[in-house]
Amino acid sequence: MITEQRSEMSVGTGGNETAPVDPGSYYRQVIGHYPTGVSIITADVDGDLLGMVVGSFSSVSVDPPLVSFFGDDRSQTFATLSRSASFCVNVLSRTQEPLVRQFVKSGADRFADVEWRRAASGSPILDGVVAWIDCDIESISRIGDHQMVVGRVRELGTDDPAPPLIFHRRGYGEFNPRALYSWPDRDLLDALKLVDLSHDVITDLTAELGLECTVTAAIGDASVVLARVAPQSTELVGSPVGYRIPLVPPIGPALMAWATESELAAWFARSPAPLTDEVRQGYLAMLGRLREDGWTWFTKDTDFMRIQDLLDSAANEAMPGEEVLRGAQGIVGDPEFNFMPIPLQPGGRYEVYSVVAPVVLPGRDTVIGMNVLGGGAEFTAEEIAHIGERLRAAADAAARRGTTSHT
User: Which tens digits make up the pLDDT trace of 106-148?
Assistant: First the structure.
């Protein structure tokens, strides 16, 4: 416990003796040997956007979730920001040093040409940051010549897993770790939990239909295979567990059927070629029909499968990425581009690539896709409809398992 405060400091001289030192210059010189991260604190105060650079951001508590930073009493920006009820911490990446220089300029429009979006509090989230933490101000207290702001976290996320920007001895740099360890992704963990709860549902469906089944999930901007079950004595046709391809239109309809407007906008934005309004409306119609029916299917001979084959080639490194992109752009940009499932005609026969259905928990806590793979084999319309209905029943059963585990 600190029982006395002293304004005089001492500095080591190489031996046991110490001498008083000016707390200004030498203090900064010594403390400068300690590296810090670099963050920009943003807020919207009565319609005015504010941003200030800090190196003092820190986590305070996990339960309740609290963070803090220190503001300089002499800063007019901090004086204004401290009147706000909320703020957002933007942790800068190693490529964002120019933002620091822009946000420390006095009298300039610090948000000029800066891409950003609003957090739930209304505070700006800057594009390209390593992480952002949206907070309500819990307390402000004076400590020395600074004020400590404690914020209660209301929402947080990561945008870019790049290394952070570091400030050390008056210079900016980056962190070069000797090893990186994967941090468990919450979406991945939730999806894997649902897959585990539904294991017997998937295996029973595979046994009933005599067809291979896979389970996929949207993890970030990729579609990832989480499980694969195939009948014995049949050749595997699906992608292996852990396989991932970019989640770009028209890939992932089962994963996007219940997406929010912002998630759909991000999906559209990842298209390998600009989408016309007609194509966008077509995608929305397809997803609406999937929500209504609970399942859909794809034949082998469609532009959907041509895109899938290209992405498979990229994932398997069988084709250069530039060539894949050009091929995908050519398909999507073709005026005759067709991704819609073919309507089933009674008595018709079709080469089936896959039948897909979404598994959705209440409130969209978790979404996974269940897929029955035809491998290009021929089926009648009635057989495809039967597979679709059985797949929908399995997806409903999986959703009930997940719902029960959440209650």
Answer: 777 889 889 999 999 999 999 989 999 999 999 999 988 899 9
CATH number for domain 33-174, candidates 3.30.465.10, 3.90.1150.210, 2.30.110.10, 3.40.50.1970: 2.30.110.10
Angle at which helix 199-209 crosses helix 381-406, to 10 degrees, equals 170
CA-to-CA distance for 48 and 304, rounded, in angstroms?
46
Region 186-406: CATH code: 3.30.450.40
Query: pLDDT (tens digit, 9 = 90+) per residue, 375-403?
Result: 888 999 999 999 999 999 999 999 998 87
pLDDT at 9: 43
Query: In the beta sheet, which residues pair with residue 117?
Result: 125
Closest CA to 211 of 241, 236, 231: 231
Q: Chain-wide mean pLDDT for the chain? A: 81
pTM of the model: 0.54
The candidate with the shortest Cα–Cα distance to 154, out of 85, 228, 83, is 85
DSSP H or E stretch at residue 277: helix 277-293
41 contact partners, CB below 8 Å, separation of at least 6 = 51, 52, 53, 54, 57, 69, 81, 87, 88, 89, 90
Cis peptide before 64 (omega within 30 of 0): yes
Residues of each domain in the chain carrying CATH 3.30.450.40: 186-406
Domain with CATH 2.30.110.10 in the chain: 33-174
Q: What is the pLDDT of residues 240-251, one digit of tens each?
A: 788 777 788 878
Residue 73 is predicted with a pLDDT of 80
Cα–Cα distance between 114 and 110 in angstroms, integer?
A: 8
Consecutive H or E run containing 289:
helix 277-293
